[in-house]
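User: I'm putting together a teaching handout on how multi-component assemblies are represented. Below are the sequence lines for each component of a complex, exactly as they appear in our records. Could you produce the 3D structure of the whole assembly as structure tokens, so the students can see both representations side by side? Please keep the chain order the same as the input.
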Amino acid sequence: MKVIKTIPQMRDWSRQQNSNGFSIGFVPTMGYLHEGHLSLIREAKKHAQKIVVSIYVNPTQFAPGEDLDAYPRDFKRDEQLCAAEGVDAVFYPSNEEMYLPQHKTFVITEELATKLCGQSRPTHFRGVTTIVAKLFNIVQPQVAVFGQKDAQQAIIIRRMVEDLNFPVQIITAPIVREADGLAMSSRNKYLSIRERQEAVFINRSLELARKSFSSGIRDLEAIRAQMEALLQKNTSARIDYIEFTDAETLGRPMPQEAPVLLAVAAYFGKTRLIDNTILE
Amino acid sequence: MKVIKTIPQMRDWSRQQNSNGFSIGFVPTMGYLHEGHLSLIREAKKHAQKIVVSIYVNPTQFAPGEDLDAYPRDFKRDEQLCAAEGVDAVFYPSNEEMYLPQHKTFVITEELATKLCGQSRPTHFRGVTTIVAKLFNIVQPQVAVFGQKDAQQAIIIRRMVEDLNFPVQIITAPIVREADGLAMSSRNKYLSIRERQEAVFINRSLELARKSFSSGIRDLEAIRAQMEALLQKNTSARIDYIEFTDAETLGRPMPQEAPVLLAVAAYFGKTRLIDNTILE
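Assistant: Of course. Below is the structure of the complete assembly, with chains in the same order as your input.
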């Protein structure tokens, strides 16, 4: 497995693979890999012959005061995990390689980026779309895999790829959960023992919603109230949002007609966790 | 010469050329071609083996009330001119092909897009960067040629390409002028006979500035005043701006140290014309 740190070397490697007739599958990550990331790598292998994983904690998707500096990093471990999964190349650039001092260009997705997580993180998604556009232009994959855990991100990336005509097929892979149901996240590392115990109630609140929806309830406000009550009773979490949107457009949910994205964000102490499910 | 109207066909054509070992040179235009455009095509031929010209009046770079509907179009003539220049493919898509109803994604270049022409056309450059990003992803050229007439556009495109890591070499080709010095522009067609006669004074004001600069004058305000006086004496034009910026960054001009972009925009009747020169 090659570890590539510069943009020209990454480009050359990809060009070489393509000219040898190999398709490239790409999994962009911020490192500190867990089973969720590994599931994306395995999914990518189903669709492409050579796999690139990028490991880069992208500063433009963090706002001042967020956890950019604290974000967990362990490149040696990530490298071993990638090698064990049969990854062909890890792209591991520095900040200096990725952002010039004179950088001015951002990719925006208008109101898609202001909903859900965009309310409390107004510059987050423009950072995400910008770095993904950059990485697509550097790695030039035919296929890229994103996790459904970041549901809004997946919707936004699909929109960007279609709108800007990137020649990349986007695949969204299911959420991977711990044994007790907590969605895997590099940020779970921040949780105290008690917060970790409480955090399982995010998924339980989603399960409760799915159960209510399956039983025929279409009053989304009633479902939200049930979820809030469950979280308030069992945790000290501060709910950032519990929202229902159209699962493809992030627009107004139409539970009688189209799949609904139910997304939750909540703070356990200082740690903000997200999770979601599709109601259909 | 092939005329291609759909994105998948354009992609296939480019892929075919590349896999046959041919490099692609690209000249994006809004059609109604003149000698300025043809000079870009000739420049592109020096750098690439196959030439694509796009002809598309991009709606997102026009604001409401601007001249989108009036913008001159003559595809048959453009097609003949391209064929005569040895262009290999003309990409001529419809609006429906280029912008989906659910389009949300734009490429922005922050304050670069708010200076000079961005003051009177605040959404213009995000339309330009967005369509150029789309066209680059569709045509996948190795080289693209832009005209120095749109100096701010050329600077912004270079910034975008570097910031988003597009694998495209950008070439800027010199301004082509009519015999009397007026910079060629599809919008010159809008001018009345009298406006056409007056419009030559834009270039004369730039010549005056170059002469003053060559003679050692570094007081840019004094140069601006000379230009304004010349235009006011000889035309009924309304000056939109006469501005001096750094020729690479659009930042503060440093006439003692670095090339200065001197850019002019003025209205002759309803027609807004732009022109520029480099002082060094």
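A couple of points students might notice: Chain B has a mean pLDDT of 97. Residues 13 and 144 of chain B are 17 Å apart (CA to CA).
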